[in-house]
Design goal:
The protein contains 10 helices and 23 strands. α7 links the parallel β18 and β19. The longest helix has 20 residues. The strands form 4 sheets. Strands 7-22-23-21-20-17-18-19 form an 8-stranded mixed sheet, sandwiched between helices. A 7-stranded mixed sheet has the order 10-9-8-11-12-13-14. Strands 1-5-6-4-3-2 form a 6-stranded mixed sheet, with no helix packed on it.
């Protein structure tokens, strides 16, 4: 079959998935690796009903927004797909992505769209990374040409759309040190000792995952997940890590013989240290004497949910608090509370806060964090959000004046939005990592609520992801 090509096409936009958008013969074409303003020759690889997918044959004229990526793995691992785009241009695109979602999907008028808040750190901003051990190493073009690393295992990231292939990461610019040093040392030691790396298809292998969590306090956690229980090998690896990195705050391990990689149903075992690290957030205002330091402390366990960009989390929660405009008399519900970060952040500004979360371990962390910060006006409930916003909850805990909701990327279930409409709080602060699902939910809430403000926040530089905070007020 003859290849279909198109010459000298200019990319004029970027899609939510991070692909460049072009037009040819009245059709929309999505191409990975281009930035707006690039002119390129394209091969049309897949023709679909509403669009065409293509790949670059030749870059004819680079855009003024194009920059050189810093990472040698760029274009393969998929972790930072916008590293070739100027950061200020990236911020403008993300801001547009949010406003367009509210215009097209929500179909509502936004009274005030505030400019996006960029991240001061473009690199080394993440406090958590998880690396996969794999016996199925993805070979780069260079490795194939030089016939290098055939049969060698990998410790790194899954290749996009190839679940069992892992690219071996030499240096990652997402997390600060000692992240790279730990990963390199663990891989090298495991190879020398002949420890088997996990085979996802065959579901066998000794080493499965390495998670590294860092905190702004300087504390570091390493979690190793083993695919089988071999005490001698386990002690050998963990002992090496302890000796090689004496500054590690805690080393934790788990044994996972399941087919899925979820940590929530695994037993976490402390090898060294307490099994957690401590992170701190700066408060917008002190509010109560118990917060005289102007900071909150949070215990982060291996299973804890905590925003992965701590500096931008401070901005996110500050904006949520400012949007709410608390007077100190409010009962607030914090939906999808995780380990209680938002609940803890606003506790000093409100009368009472109720956090709701489906993960038991996260709620246990939230209660510990409240105690750690001497917070006495917060309580935390475990349960599926689908069944929590009901008359029984309202009877026991009160009807909220303000609701803060921070759901996963899929957004809120329609039944949850229906329950919010019934509860009818005066304000809803909706924090989202997916403006499209946020806009979809806002469209359902629009029958009773007006969108007063939106504020995008860039939590993930050099990716297509953007966070957004929306203030909804009940229509009188």
């Amino acid at each position: 079959m003859e290849k279909q090509t198109a010459e000298n096409l200019e990319a004029y936009d970027i899609s939510e998935e991070g692909k460049a958008v072009l037009r040819h013969d009245g059709r929309v074409i999505f191409v990975k690796g281009l930035v707006p303003g690039d002119v390129a020759d394209i091969e049309l690889t897949r023709v679909k009903k509403k669009h065409v997918e293509g790949k670059i044959i030749a870059l004819k004229k680079p855009s003024s927004y194009r920059v050189d990526p810093v990472c040698s793995h760029f274009g393969v691992c998929g972790g930072c797909s916008w590293q070739n785009l100027d950061y200020q241009a990236e911020l403008r695109l993300k801001e547009k992505q949010v406003t367009e979602a509210f215009r097209r999907i929500a179909g509502v008028e936004v009274e005030e769209a505030l400019p996006i808040i960029g991240s001061e750190k473009n690199y080394h901003y993440r406090n958590k990374l998880e690396f996969a051990f794999s016996s199925k190493r993805w070979l780069t073009h260079e490795e194939m040409e030089q016939k290098k690393n055939f049969g060698k295992p990998a410790l790194g990231f899954h290749v996009p759309r190839l679940f069992d292939k892992v690219i071996d990461i030499k240096e990652c610019f997402l997390q600060p040190e000692p992240s790279n040093a730990i990963r390199q040392a663990v891989r090298g030691f495991a190879e020398i000792e002949g420890m088997s790396f996990f085979d996802l298809r065959e579901q066998q292998g000794f080493l499965r995952h390495l998670m590294i969590r860092t905190a702004s306090t300087g504390e570091v956690m390493a979690l190793v997940t083993f695919g089988s229980d071999d005490r001698r090998k386990r002690e050998k690896l963990l002992g090496f890590m302890q000796k090689q990195f004496p500054g590690l705050t805690t080393i934790v391990y788990a044994i996972n013989t399941k087919k899925n990689d979820s940590l929530y149903d695994l037993e976490m075992v402390n090898y060294t240290g307490s099994g957690y690290i401590t992170e701190k957030l700066k408060l917008r205002k002190q509010g109560q004497s118990l917060h005289e330091s102007g900071e909150l402390s949070f215990r982060i366990s291996p299973q804890s949910f905590f925003q992965t960009n701590t500096a931008q989390a401070n901005n996110l929660y500050r904006i949520a608090s400012e949007f709410a405009g608390f007077r100190g008399t409010e009962l607030v519900y914090d939906l999808y509370t995780g380990c209680g970060t938002i609940a803890g952040y606003i506790a000093g500004e409100v009368k009472r806060v109720v956090g709701i979360e489906s993960v038991k371990q996260a709620v246990a962390d939230a209660r510990i964090n409240a105690e750690l910060n001497h917070i006495t006006n917060a309580e935390f409930l475990v349960g599926d959000m689908l069944y929590m916003l009901n008359e029984d909850t309202f009877r026991h805990h009160g009807i909220p004046d303000v609701v803060i909701t921070d759901p996963p990327r899929a957004g809120m279930h329609p039944d949850v939005t229906a329950d919010l409409l019934k509860a009818a709080p005066q304000k809803i602060i909706y924090i989202s990592c997916n403006p499209s699902t946020q806009a979809r939910d806002v469209a359902l809430l629009a029958q009773k609520y007006a969108v007063k403000k939106i504020q995008p926040v860039d939590m993930f530089p050099h990716t297509s992801h953007v966070e957004n905070v929306a203030l909804l007020e009940k229509i009188s």
